[in-house]
Amino acid sequence: MAAALVVSSRGWGKLRQILAAGKGAGASCAVLWRRGCSSQQEHVSHNEDLPIQMENPYKDPPKRCLLCGINVDYKNVQLLSQFVSPYTGRIYGRHITGLCGKKQKEISKAIKRAHVIGFMPVVYKDPTFLNDPKICDIRHPE
Fold first, then answer.
1. What are the tens digits of pLDDT across the range 69-119?
2. How far apart are CA 99 and CA 84, in angstroms?
């Protein structure tokens, strides 16, 4: 005797009544009883139920190099002075300037060349360029 059973969590007493009635008939019994089940159920396909793939909205936009596409020259002292500390005259590193490796190397070479030739002071930043807008992300107040 094969019996197909589909039973909800409630109603074990009702299930026993149905099984007893099925055994008394002497035929194979198929019990299909669900709570809130209808024959007109809408089946949702597997693809409709999956989450939508989308880009992370909290991801920061990719950082770009400020000088990519700009020619770096040792004679452009105003541009070069943006990457030099006003107090010590040191060249800012990549983590502060935000430049790519290639442009950081070009800036460093151009600043050193301007120091050697005499276009830029070595120990401090030229006072005429102190009021220029800040390109680098510097944390200390001025």
1. 899 999 999 999 989 988 888 999 988 888 999 999 999 999 999 999 999
2. 14
Alpha-carbon distance of 113 to 119, in angstroms, equals 9
Q: Which amino acid does the sequence have at 78? A: Q
125 and 89 Cβ atoms separated by less than 8 Å:
yes
* Rounded Cα distance, 140 and 50, in Å: 49
CB atoms within 10 A of CB 76: 14
**pLDDT per residue over 22-69, tens digit each?**
665 544 445 455 555 555 666 666 677 788 888 888 988 877 888 888
Q: Strand pairing of 30-32 and 4-6? A: parallel
DSSP string, 53-77: P---TTPPPPP--SSTTS---TT-H
